[in-house]
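Duplicate of earlier report; XRE family transcriptional regulator input re-posted below.
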Amino acid sequence: MKKPVLTFDIIKEEIGYSAISSSKGRYIATQGDDFEDLKKNIVEAANLASEDFGFEYSIDELILRPDLQSFFEFYKVLNVNALSKRINMNQSLLAQYISGTKKPSSTQTRRILEGVQQVGRELSAIQFLL
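Output:
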């Protein structure tokens, strides 16, 4: 049996974060006070749920799918003002999506994701002069 790909949906809670996944009829859920704690707990929960199958996971083998609020909390290094300009979105509206005050449509979420992924591609192509 091939090791299944596990995708965890991560949600910002009032206090901390929760993560849920479902694979092969098994529901996996965990929580953490911060992102590092959550990642450790996700690996532990995935491995506990998969031990009957003889699978063991590392964090790099798991797909983490955060909500907007969690993503921007994890990656505070991203400048929201610069991103809003890059994707041509009102900064106030983007801030409301990030804070959870407003819920973006799937089109708006895709627009934000494409902007973030573009920045990621550009950063991964950077080479410094040595």
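The chain has five helices and four strands.

Merging into the original ticket.
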